[in-house]
Every structure is written in structure tokens, then in C-alpha cells.
TrEMBL record:
PANTHER family: BINDING MONOOXYGENASE, PUTATIVE (JCVI)-RELATED, TRK SYSTEM POTASSIUM UPTAKE PROTEIN. It comes from Dyella lipolytica. GO terms for molecular function: monooxygenase activity. This is FAD-dependent monooxygenase. InterPro entries: FAD-bd, FAD/NAD-bd_sf, RIFMO-like. Keywords: FAD, Flavoprotein, Monooxygenase, Oxidoreductase. Residues 3-341 form the FAD-binding domain. Its cofactor is FAD. Transmembrane segments: none annotated.
Amino acid sequence: MRSDVLIVGAGPTGLVLALWLTKLGVNVHIVDKTSEPGTTSRALAVQARTLELYRQLDLTDAVVGSGHKVPAVNLWVKGERATRVGFEVIGSDLTPYPFLQIFPQDQHERLLVGRLEALGVRVQRNTELIGFTDEGGRIVARLRGPDGSEESWEASYIAGCDGARSLVRETVGTGFPGGTYRQVFYVADVEASGPSINGELHIDLDEADFLAVFPLAGQGRVRLIGTVRDERADRAETLKFEDVSDRAIQHLKVNIDNVHWFSTYRVHHRVTEQFRVGRAFLLGDAAHIHSPAGGQGMNTGIGDAINLAWKLAAVLAGRAGDALLDSYEAERIGFARRLVATTDRVFSFATAEGRMADIVRTRLAPVLIPAITRFEATREFLFRTVSQITLNYRGCPLSEGSAGHIHGGDRLPWAAVTDHDNFAGLTAIRWQVHVYGNARTELVDWCAGHDLPLHVFDWRPEHEAAGFVRNALYLLRPDTYVALADASGTPEAIGRYCNSRGITF
């Protein structure tokens, strides 16, 4: 009973990790204590960066085709729409996916499970991790199966994708510092009508409690997400939809015809102190949880999985040493800490109490937000941040050099050239080199001799606008981030980079 990697937890994070590893030839065993994929969910948003990465396993079209594109966000005050901010205008030259994609987590999980089964891997359901030991050269875990019997499972590595109450995290003892919001969150999937049921995102600014209407695929289907902090928060377990629906009806003019699902929950803001301990790794909610503001949580867990997958595959195949795995924590923990801090500040500001906070929300915000979003730089900053395309690994161990505005560790910029998409080659999960302009003959020969794909793009003004330097080389990692940016364009730069890190292709 052995696998290269034992994955505990079959939510989106664990499923994506299993998919990427399986595609890279790694033998995985994925277990989950639930009997089936989720039938309800809180996570809705799939950000642009996730859609870009999903091209590697041909998942993007399925997500976009089955979900709902949100073109804009609307802010409401005193029962009227105060302002509207469009997404597509902001990001159309930054990514092929300049929108917010709504694709509920339950549908998302079913898609991932289906793709994993097509590759010959099934989730072992009704199976719980009881404990494990790291014996230096291997992990030995105890699993309890559907019939209550226990078995021993051996793996080279264990990945804790088992959520906020992670047993993997508790076993390695990394801690989970942070706090809990005093508000109780609620979610309700409803059929409704009214001016805010138009396929866009709507947020009410009238009160200190958060309230938003998220569109779902299908006529009149939306999800209400909100908070309560008064005496109702003290009886969260018995809270009913009737206790919170009146505000949505009055403030956002939602006429509710049918309620399909209603649930309440509390939200924490925490980041574990280590993402790696020996042969154990923590990903997704097991490593970081935060306010749902901005729709970042699920996407961040998926980013964890893709970051770790290619590194595990390289080490298991002998193409890199163990030090490569240390870069997982170095790259992901800083981002998680910044994300938790940012969402905490935004949520705390949006839900602040008092007369001054009310004035800021209901009088200043509707005026200031349209004013500042008239500036292209502001719109671009907001879109880059929320869509996660601004996420970079500058200054981390695998990042080196710069050429133009692009540094080692950056996401490769998308150049909107209609007849030669520079993202087309990113469907392959492997190292590759990009040159915009002309590649040196010795670089062409070196790449051919090392079985390293080389993509050369005729120089265009769009490349300069995206920040590229003509004839420079950009070495891309298997997760499509820039590992090395070198203006000289010589193969010796790649050789030095790989030798210093013990990486082969």
C-alpha cells in the first residue's frame, strides 16, 4: 500500500494537486472522509490567474463554459445603485480572461473529480487519516476505511489539503496563529428577480454588516452573502433565512421567489507558521484562511497546489534535489500572509461601525470610487490584485535576473497579439524559453541539445508595451512563472542558473 504522494483532502486544492501530479507521472493516493463531493459550497469566484493556469490541463473552457462571467460590480446606497465599475475594460490588455468567473465549488469539484478519474485515479471516499509519522526517508500513515478497519499507507510525501482543522497540520505542530471575526457569515442560494438580478455583482454599503448579491448561471439564480453582528450572531446555529432576508429585499430590491440553500458559518484569519515540515506539506485552508472578501481563498489553494506539484514531480524523478521543495514555503507563505492581512484590512474597513464609518461608506465611497477608477493605473492595480495576476516570487530562491520590466519570479506577461498568442505554449507543464525578437544561434542549438522548448516571437509593439526586451531570453518554470530573465540572450545564463540550483530538464 504505497504511493509517491498521499493527498489528504479532496476539495479543489487536493484535487488540483492530484491532477497536476498525475499528469506529470507521479503516483498519487487521494483520500477524503466525506462520502461524495460537496453538494453545497461557499467558494464561487475563479480568478483570471487560475483560468490561465487551468489551460495546462484543458480545464479553462469547461469552467468558462459552465459558469457565469461577471462583467461589473455595482455599489448600492439607500436602495439605489450609486456606481458601477466594469471589469472587462480594466483587464482586456492584461489577460485573456478579463472578468470575474463564477463557478460554484460543488460544480468545480465534480469537474476536477471527473478529469482525475479520466486519468485513472479515484478519490478513496469515507477514508480518514488517523495519524502519520515521518521516518526520514518515507511517510507512514494510518488510514481508517469505510468499514472502520485501519490500514498502513506508505508514501514519499504527504500533502495536507484537509482544511482548517487539518490533522496533518496538527501532527507536524506548526501552529495556526490568527483570530476569528466576530461577525457570523451567511450564504443563501435563491431564485429572485429585480434590478440587482442582472448578471452582475451588487454590494450594499448602507450598513456595517456586509451584503452582496453574486450572480449564478441560470435565469434569476443568485447567491446572497452577508454578515450579522448583533444579537442574531449569538444564535448563529438557529439563524434562519427569514432573519436576514428583509435587508436584501429592501436595500438591493431583491424579490425572492425560492430559497434553495441557506447556511451560516464563522470565519477566521490565520496563517500556519510553516508550509513544509520534513516530508509533510500544507496547502489551502490547512495553511491559510481569511475573510471571503475578494474571492481569493479557493484560488490561493489552487495556486499552492500547482506551485508544489511540479517541484514534487521534479524531485521524485531525480531532476532536482530536495532543496527545490523548500522553495514552496518560501514562495507561498509570504503571499498568504500578505493576502490575509489585506483581506482583513478590507473587510474590517467595510464593516467598521460608527457614524464616521457610515459617512465614508454611504457618502464618500460612492463618489470616490468612480473618481479613482477613472484613472487607468488605479483600475489596472485593482484588477491585477484581485485577479492574482500581480502575484510574483521576486527575491525567492528560484528567481533570478531582469530584462525590461520583467524580473525573475514574475508571472509571464500576456502580449495581446492576435496572430501569435505568447500564452499558447504554456499548456505544456515543463520548462521552456521565450525570446521576443531574434534568438541567438547558440541559444537555439543549446535548447535543442537539452530538449528545452524554445518559443521565438516576431518583435511587435505589444511586446514592448508588455515590458519585454527585444532579443532577451526568459526561462519559464513549469508553472509558467519567469525563473530567469536575461537581457544577453545567451545559453550560458541558463546553464549557470540550473547548475547553481541543481536542476536538470
